[in-house]
Amino acid sequence: MKLTYRDKIVAAILIAIAILLIGFFALIRPTINRIKDDKAIRTTRMAEKEKTENTIAQIPGLKENIINIYTDTTNTARVFVPREEVKDTAVIDQTMQDFADKTKVTLKSVELANSTLAPIDYYYEATSDTFVDLRKSADVNGDLQTEYDASVAESTSLTQRAKESIIQTQYGIRVEGTKKNIYDYLEELKNYDKAMVINSVAIADYTFGKNAADAAKVSLPDSKDGEKVEVSAGEGQKITNTSEAQIVITLYSVYDMPEPNVEAN
């Protein structure tokens, strides 16, 4: 079949359109899709970049917060007896001897027990709601219950608080002295600037020689400013106004926190 010139022109146009369509689907469309994918990846990467930049911007403040927490923790921990001092009996022995020298008692012995990990008890007044039924019958508006709950809120909070554990080390201290001397020694222990509790005090002769003197029908001389005095009770027996006291104390320790490394490597 012979094509006219018009037919040839139409055929050429159709072939050109077909070539363009094939080129679009074969080359241009995948490129457009890749551009869309690249835009999506770019959007994700920009979001990650913004997040990273925000994190970096927060680092100076974060470093400051860490240092502040470390400083506050270190200051709080100063009240506890350093662990190395608890393990070194010579340090505690010297401290107890210094107290003895100051209060004029004789330090007989300091005995160390093993350190243990034990919970810290909270001191609070245990409450018992004895009149709960009577209060309920009169509490038409609920005000009485609200008032009661407010009055016991602190002790209730303490009973529910978790108990943290701490290193505890007990010492048995035996001293000898007059009543004033021993009481002064106990006062020194009470004013010790480290975390310590006096667990018990047992005084061998709570009369400090008075009962012994009465039994021997003698009179102890007056003691000026708590000084030691004695009286002869015959046959070489001497009675003094002194007594031994057995004192048990507990020292509390924590491990020192190393300074945090907040500098980037």
Question: Could you give a short description of this structure?
Answer:
With 265 residues, this protein is of the alpha+beta class. The chain contains eight helices and seven strands; from the N terminus they run αααββαααβαβαβββ.
Task: Give me the secondary-structure topology.
Elements: H1 5-77, H2 83-87, H3 89-103, E1 106-112, E2 116-119, H4 132-138, H5 143-151, H6 153-160, E3 165-178, H7 179-190, E4 196-203, H8 210-215, E5 230-232, E6 238-240, E7 242-253
Antiparallel strand pairs: 1-3, 2-3, 3-7, 4-7, 5-6
Helix pairs in contact: 3-7
Would you kindly provide a written description of the structure presented here, covering whatever features stand out?
This protein has 265 residues and is α+β, with helices and mostly antiparallel strands. Helices cover 51% and strands 19% of the residues. The chain contains 8 helices and 7 strands, in the order H-H-H-E-E-H-H-H-E-H-E-H-E-E-E. It has helices at 5-77, 83-87, 89-103, 132-138, 143-151, 153-160, 179-190, 210-215, and strands at residues 106-112, 116-119, 165-178, 196-203, 230-232, 238-240, 242-253. Strands 1, 2, 3, 4 and 7 form a 5-stranded antiparallel beta sheet that branches. Strands 5-6 form a two-stranded antiparallel ribbon. Helix 3 packs across helix 7 (179-190). The mean pLDDT is 81.
